[in-house]
Specification:
Rossmann fold, 6 helices, alpha/beta, about 220 residues, 7-stranded mixed sheet
């Protein structure tokens, strides 16, 4: 499967955006706590331990901006990061696959996430992270069903591709792409990344920066 290519100026714009300021703003536990929707917003979703925190850190070039943990469900809020001094909100959603928390807590998180996805006007895209070693799993299909129902555009990002031989990554990407054709809200391009090696990070930055108005506009 051919990896997407981006113009050099878009790659550079993405580099500049994410080489600027990046700050954790707040953790949101209910809709009343959401910040004003006054800028473009993208969010990252995925199963626990899929590598969300590592990817956010790789995007921003900051080792500890988002905290990674081996404990499932450690991210228990919608974590908001300000990128580029007010140009972008990047949102880290709670991981799916809550092995060590109560059913009541799981239900509360799911209600918050569903309400957020259905009612956030500034949300331009959800990046759904999928471990390239495992491919799409039941929890991924569940969140895709939710996103399709909410008419929120989402894009699959394969993670940890350095852990898998390239032919297997390409096979997984092709299989995922084929399944996305049946889903109305899915972006057709599957991105491939390795936070550890930096592979695919410039392309993901370029994908995100395309949502933003030019500086000063």
């Amino acid at each position: 499967m051919q990896a997407p290519s981006y113009p050099d100026d878009q790659i550079e714009a993405g580099r500049q955006l994410f080489s600027g300021s990046a700050e954790f703003i707040m953790g949101v536990v209910d809709l009343q706590g959401l910040p004003v929707a006054d800028r473009v917003e993208v969010c990252f979703a995925g199963r626990s331990n899929v590598g969300k925190s590592s990817l956010i850190n790789a995007l921003t070039g900051r080792a500890k901006l988002a905290r990674a943990s081996t404990e499932p469900g450690r991210t228990r809020e919608l974590n908001y990061f300000d990128i580029g001094e007010g140009r972008l909100y990047l949102v880290d959603l709670p991981g799916f696959g809550y092995a060590q928390v109560s059913k009541t807590q799981v239900a509360a998180w799911q209600k918050l996430i569903k309400s957020y996805l259905r009612g956030r006007p500034s949300l331009r895209r959800v990046f759904l992270l999928v471990d390239s070693r495992r491919g799409l799993m039941d929890t991924d299909h569940e969140i895709m069903d939710l996103l399709d129902g909410a008419a929120v555009t989402y894009q699959i990002v394969l993670t940890k591709i350095d852990k898998v031989p390239k032919p297997e990554v390409e096979k997984t990407a092709a299989e995922v792409s084929a399944k996305l054709r049946k889903r109305g809200a899915a972006h057709p391009v599957v991105l491939q990344t390795s936070s550890e090696k930096g592979w695919g990070i410039p392309e993901l930055r370029a994908e995100i920066v395309a949502f933003l108005p030019p500086p000063g506009a």
